[in-house]
Design a protein that fits this description.
This protein is of the alpha+beta class and 176 residues long. Helix content is 14%, strand content 19%. The termini are far apart. Among the domains are: 60 residues, Zinc/RING finger domain, C3HC4 (zinc finger) (Herpes Virus-1); 56 residues, Zinc/RING finger domain, C3HC4 (zinc finger) (Herpes Virus-1). The chain is built from five helices and ten strands, in the order ββααββαββαββαββ. The mean pLDDT is 89.
Length: 176
């Protein structure tokens, strides 16, 4: 990055500041800032001594996230050679990492077609895959990135069976 004024001071994934044991690593091309642990491979193995380029910039990619219409952000390749925001992959229930410890090999092939047929109530875009409000009486659909920008909170819960469930409620149904 050319000028320090343009640096982001929090991780583009967890939005936490750098810490002594978790410094931020910046992509020399697009400027995203990530913690080593948040980004996963290849940063998980080591922080390069030289300039670092994120996977998206290394691939010189130009297509956006297959799960939402938002541009920019931290994108990684899917198992079917498309691109997805790490945040979309983390929170959309049927998306998963085939290599979880490295936040890598993102599989989006099990996402039901019905998620791709929804229109986000926040951005009004019909592109991508939407979640719906976890309140059983609500049918508000939203992209993960749109919801996060709007302040909708996401939460993992583990069922007795051991399966993880993602909960996200629209602002009307969020418990105060």
């Amino acid at each position: 990055m050319a000028e320090s004024d343009n640096l982001v001071w929090t991780c583009s994934i967890c939005h936490e500041e750098p810490m002594r044991d978790a410094p931020l690593v910046y992509c020399e091309n697009c400027g995203i800032a990530v913690h080593q642990q948040c980004y996963g491979y290849p940063l998980l193995k080591s922080i390069p001594e030289e300039d670092w380029f994120c996977d998206y910039c290394t691939a010189n990619a130009s297509s956006g996230c297959v799960l939402c219409p938002q541009s920019g952000g931290v994108l990684k390749r899917t198992t079917d050679a498309r691109w997805v925001h790490l945040l979309c992959a983390m929170w959309l229930p049927e998306a998963f990492f085939r290599v979880p410890e490295g936040s890598d090999a993102i599989d989006v092939l099990h996402i039901p077609e019905s998620r791709f047929n929804e229109t986000c109530f926040i951005c009004k875009e019909p592109r991508g895959a939407c979640m719906t409000c976890s309140d059983s009486e609500c049918n508000a659909a939203f992209h993960v990135t749109c919801a996060l920008k709007r302040g909708i909170k996401f939460k993992y819960e583990t069922c007795r069976s051991g399966a993880d469930i993602v909960f996200a409620t629209c602002n009307r149904h969020r418990k105060r």
